[in-house]
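Practice problem: predict the structure.
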Amino acid sequence: MKGIEALIKHNKSFVIYRTPNGEPILILQTVDPLLRLMDLNELNGKTGFVFAPFQTTDSSPLMLMQPDILIEGWQDINNYLSQEKYAVEAENSTDNIGKNSVEKDDYDSYKQAFASFIDSLKEKTFEKLVLSRTSTHAKDFSFSLEKALHNACERYADAFVYLYHTPETGTWLGSTPEILLSGEGEHWNTVALAGTLPFHRASLPDAWSEKNIREQQLVADYVGNQLNSFGIKPEAKGPFTVRAGELAHLKSEFSFELSEKERLGSLLSLLHPTPAVCGLPKDEAYQFILANEGYCRRYYSGFMGWINPDGKTDLYVNLRCMEIGSSCLTLYAGGGLLSHSEMEMEWKETEAKLQTMLAIIK
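Answer:
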């Protein structure tokens, strides 16, 4: 699929994505500019592919792609991208101008940020905070977006996988197990996903620490309360242990009827960002992260996917992802902190999460 490189080199707006165990879909918007939105409520009544940041800013806008080209299945996607015009464009086009504005992070900067976060937790200012970091790697000459995308689809069959590019956002590749909002007609669902342990020898863990259990419960309580505030009475199941790549998480599922489908944006504004990527209390934790984390998350811990109030909606939290620049790859990972969290253990958890993306580019 050399056409992918050509699309990026010419700054075409497109996404290739695949829902868990589904068929890949390529969508392009070539006629009109993408909608740049500044508030999730602006999604009410709209249809398209959403790419939402952690914090909406002029440099990281909320994007809505409304495609004029939609192709499903690897064979048809390959046929479309292998057209002669894309091969010619790939030879004659310029370098990728996708942004790569994230600073390189390391152990010392993480340690410094952790100290600030844990002090506020011990002072009981917050119940939970999520601290994230980046890991920047030189982009080897042999790096292939096509291969990385296929590797992600094969390795993480149970996850939402995507490759996204627009002139405004640059190029992003990711794989995530966490549903933010999914549904069709009257039947909808969301999840609370938190707690992390390594997945060893094809066996899910049967024992979780008090910290992991408490962290997951905070997320589940938040999701239930936010749904209630929207007039939704969900049916909750869990928590239970699930696998996500080489990691295991605790998961609770919420299913519910949704009569106000034209207000999906308003519901999303209640759910995002969840305590799984932010903290509690939500608004105060959000502002604390912006002021103290030490870098801009951009689209990491935002969300993306297809939204359609009159059809099927599949939106996922942007957890395991990388930003692809012209010369380097910036990988993102984070973890939830409680007052008794230990720095070394949390650092190791982020290292394990980074392996999700590292595994597909080796």
